[in-house]
Amino acid sequence: MKTIEQTTDEILNLAATHFKYPRADLQPGDDFYKKLGIDSLQALELLTRLENHFGVELPDYEVQGVSDFHTLATRIQARL
Amino acid sequence: MDEFKGKTLSWRIEGGAVELALDRPPANEIGLAMLEDLERFVSSLPALESKASALILYSKQKAGFSAGADLRELYEQAQKMDAPSAAKGVRAFLERIHAALNRLDASPLTTIAAVHGVCFGGGFELALVCDLIVADKMARFCFPELRLGLIPGFGGIPRLKRDAGNAVVRDLLLTGRSINATKALSAGLVSQVAAEGEALRLSRATAAQAAKFDRATAAAAKRFIKPLPAEELRREIDIFCELFTRPAVMEGLRKFVENAGPHPYLP
């Protein structure tokens, strides 16, 4: 079982790679919409990449209103 | 016409398959312009069907296969007229798109949707017309219509019911959630999952395999295993039109159209 820190770190790595953003500049509490400058279609790309990486289903209504990496990690953690 | 380039799509015959490429920025929203191009394609189908054994639908837009109906156009058109006229206009549009999609559905060609990115609403309905869906692993499927107070109107429900079990049909429709390619594969909606960027190549390989068989036999098999759910398709148009004139629908469309934030495609 991954720890929440591990899950968060993997999310940050995936987001940095997918959106070509410097990993060192991403923090768990960051608002990913603002920090990465992404729209809802790009957020869906991130959601799909996370599902594929972690092997979980993450219904979009579960991430409704979620905009920071740490909270996103808790949602994924609940399904691991 | 073996080759054509319209405002929103193009087609050509390549390696024994007709390739229909959707290409309307930003995400192949299906409005009047795409409907007209689809109708042009359908009118060319008899000639194309005599020269090919498969049809591949794909998108040239990076965002995905199609984000669905052009809701901005729908809202703007509806705002220009009173409710009865708007309902009449929507019914006329639906009748035309059903005629085009039903013709594609029943084509004797083996039809394949090569899907990447978003495949939402009307885009999903267009993909469901095809015999096979080959999905990029980053593809995402969704019927978001209930968020707007509507049901899918391009034949999505009858075709979804034709292909999938109750659990996934009700989940997709009643929650409006999106699912990825792996989930769609396990639900029986997708035939193959491709690596990123490989859906079109796999679709071409699948089309080449389909071309090995006698066309008359393949067409007979298709007619047998994939009947058109004609009665339910008619009923879907009626229900959509009954729902469309409610104030809640116009309000939902207004919110979507005026949403300048980053969330319009999330529930």
Fold and architecture overview:
The complex is a heterodimer of chains A (80) and B (267). Chain A is mostly helical and 80 residues long. Helices cover 55% and strands 0% of the residues of chain A. Chain A has helices at 4-18, 32-36, 40-54, 69-77. In chain A, α1 (4-18) packs across α4 (69-77). In chain B, the strands form two sheets. Chain B has a seven-stranded mixed sheet with strand order 1-2-3-4-6-8-11, with helices on both faces. The model of chain B has no long low-confidence stretch (mean pLDDT 93). The interface between A and B is medium-sized, with 19 and 24 residues.
How many structural domains does the protein architecture of chain B include?
A: 1
CATH architecture of chain A, please?
Answer: Orthogonal Bundle
Topology, number of strands of chain B:
11
CATH superfamily of chain B: 2-enoyl-CoA Hydratase, Chain A, domain 1
CATH domain fold name of chain B: 2-enoyl-CoA Hydratase, Chain A, domain 1
Low-confidence stretches of chain B: none
Q: What is the straight-line distance between the termini of chain B?
A: 42 Å
Reported for the largest beta sheet of chain A, the result is: none
Identify the most extensive interface between protein chains: A-B, 19 and 24 residues
Binned strand content of chain A: under 5%
Secondary-structure-derived class of chain B: alpha/beta
The helicity of chain A comes to 55-70%
Written as H for each helix and E for each strand, in order along the chain, the element string of chain B is EEEHEEHHEEHEEHHEHEHHHH
State the total count of DSSP E strands of chain A. Answer: 0
State the share of residues found in helices of chain B, binned by percent.
Answer: 40-55%
Question: How many helices of chain B in DSSP terms?
Answer: 11
Oligomeric description of these chains:
heterodimer
How many domains of chain A? The number is: 1
Number of helices of chain A: 4
Overall spatial form of chain B: globular
